[in-house]
Amino acid sequence: MTRRMTKAEAKTWKARFEALNEYEREELRNTTLDAKLRQLVTLMRWGQAFGWRRGPTDGEGEVRGRWIRLKKSHCV
Q: What are the residues whose beta carbons fall under 8 Å from the beta carbon of 53, sequence distance 6 or more?
């Protein structure tokens, strides 16, 4: 059985996690548009290589239409 984390350990873990998140956000802010575009193209090519092709599915348009009608009727 594993022991439970103390409050101090939890606070330390949370602080490290938040620092890591901030570092990642800053890294993303500093990434050039060209690099982001290359990353997107790479991901799209991976999808094609794995055979992931998303086309319209049966009934998707009908369901989307229902949601639009519901939104219009309840968000006047």
A: 47
